[in-house]
Design a protein that fits this description.
By secondary structure, this protein is mainly beta. Among the domains are: 2-146, no CATH class; 282-441, Porin (Beta Barrel). It has three helices and 33 strands. It has a 24-stranded mixed beta sheet that branches. Strands 25-26-27-28-29-30-31-33 form an eight-stranded antiparallel barrel. Strand 1 and strand 2 (37-38) form a beta hairpin.
Length: 442
């Protein structure tokens, strides 16, 4: 029975595909078993059906309102309405069977299209030869040769050969070749080679370009990528994930690792990058003393935000610092800690606008402190906000910036800390002002 069904599904194409009559007959209702055994006779490709009901496979020039097939439905021309098949729905393509590639291109130049305006529902495969205005739903694969205006849902994979304006949802992946405007949602990957506007949600998200909302090439539409890995060419939107990659990033990256290049347009403001490791501009060390730790050793990185704006009197960077802190001996009941600091840092320019002198930064910080040499099981958190000012040394040591900073700190379980000057407690929590001083390399 399975072999017989497969033969019925595919063998008709060789028999009926080259039936190119110049005028097509109208059929209100096609009832059949498979092509050649239906109310439309042995040449079902000559009929435009309003309704088509087939036990196994249905075949016609087009269907206007409703088609229901046990296995598959095939229409050689543009169709409308609802098409439901147990295995597959296929619209377009067979009118060009037997033609050379040159003849096919000629027909396409003359406006040959096979479109769907409506819905396709199948168990395994939906295919449309040109464009879809509507929806495709299947447990397997949806395939549109040109563009999709509407919605796709697939258990496995969605493919659009042109551009998409709508939504793609699948378990494995979504791909819109030329561009995408809307939502792509999958467990594994979402991709377009061209421009993207909307939202991508998946393990791996890729876009050829995401336009910025500000600057010389500003667009009203931008995109948000949320996933484990997010990648884009020129990126003017948002990336939130473990690893974010952008070619020229004028947007915002939030992740564990951010990789970026600065945009090259003149008088253009870039977006910030916030993460533990930011690769694309600088990574510099800091050493300092604070009220809690004798030794603090940090690596800070930044992404320029306005360095190409010629009228700017200061250079602003996004600020990221990963810090290891230690007391070398038991002090304040704290042995060591790790933390992450983020915010903005601003270097004020001298008379020579290419030279940076003093700086000011405002940052937030959160981290863990440990009471023992070995990592204990308790997660002891500390949160702080900090304002810092640094001063550039003489020319021979112009890369060294001594600094001082004031902070305000909060520990949810601060009872483990010895009383600090001006400290206050709220239940088991402790709040206090702090300080730090040291040197920064820039």
């Amino acid at each position: 029975m399975i072999r017989f069904s497969i033969i019925l599904l595919f063998s008709w194409q060789a028999i009926f595909a080259q039936n190119n009559t110049s005028a097509y007959k109208k059929s209100t209702m096609q009832l059949g078993l498979f092509p050649g055994m239906s109310t439309n006779g042995i040449n079902p490709g000559e009929y435009d059906n309003i309704f088509s009901l087939n036990i196994f496979t249905g075949f016609g020039h087009s269907t206007s309102y409703f088609e229901l097939n046990g296995l598959a439905g095939f229409n050689t021309a543009s169709s409308t309405g609802i098409h439901i098949s147990g295995f597959a729905n296929y619209i377009g393509g067979n009118n060009q069977v037997g033609l050379t590639e040159k003849q096919k291109r000629q027909e396409r130049r003359l406006g040959y299209e096979t479109n769907l305006s409506g819905f396709q529902i199948s168990g395994v495969m939906n295919f449309v030869g040109t464009n879809v205005f509507g929806a495709q739903v299947t447990l397997g694969v949806n395939n549109v040769a040109n563009y999709l205006i509407g919605f796709q849902f697939a258990g496995l994979f969605n493919y659009v050969g042109g551009f998409t304006m709508g939504t793609q949802v699948s378990a494995i992946g979504n791909y819109s070749k030329k561009s995408m405007s809307g939502v792509q949602l999958s467990l594994f990957f979402n991709s377009t080679q061209g421009s993207y506007s909307g939202i991508q949600l998946g393990f791996y998200n890729h876009a050829g370009i995401i336009m910025p909302t500000k600057g010389p090439e500003a667009s009203k539409n931008t995109a948000l990528q949320v996933g484990i890995v997010n990648a884009s060419g020129d990126m003017g939107g948002w990336q939130i994930g473990f690893l974010n990659i952008g070619d020229r990033v004028a947007g915002t990256q939030i992740g564990i690792i951010n990789i970026f290049k600065s945009a090259k347009s003149a008088d253009y403001k870039d977006g910030p990058a916030f993460g533990l490791l930011n690769l694309g501009y600088f990574i510099n060390p800091r050493v300092y003393v604070s009220e809690l730790f004798i030794g603090n050793y940090g690596l800070y990185s930044g992404k320029p935000l306005n360095t190409r704006v010629r009228s700017a009197t200061r250079s602003v960077y996004s600020y990221n610092e990963t810090i290891y802190s230690t007391n070398h001996s038991q002090s304040n009941n704290i042995n060591w800690g790790v933390s992450y600091r983020f915010g903005l840092i601003s270097f004020y320019k001298s008379v020579d606008v290419t030279s940076q002198r003093n700086y000011f930064s405002f940052t937030g910080e959160f981290g863990h402190y440990n009471r023992n040499k070995k990592f204990d099981k308790e997660l002891n958190m500390r949160y702080a906000i900090q304002a810092e000012i640094g001063f550039k040394l003489a020319k021979k040591a112009s890369f060294i910036y001594p600094f001082v900073a004031l902070s305000y700190n909060f520990m949810p379980n601060g009872e483990v800390i010895n009383s600090e000057v001006l400290a206050s407690s709220i239940g088991s929590s402790l709040l206090w002002p702090g300080y730090s001083f040291g040197i920064m390399i820039h």
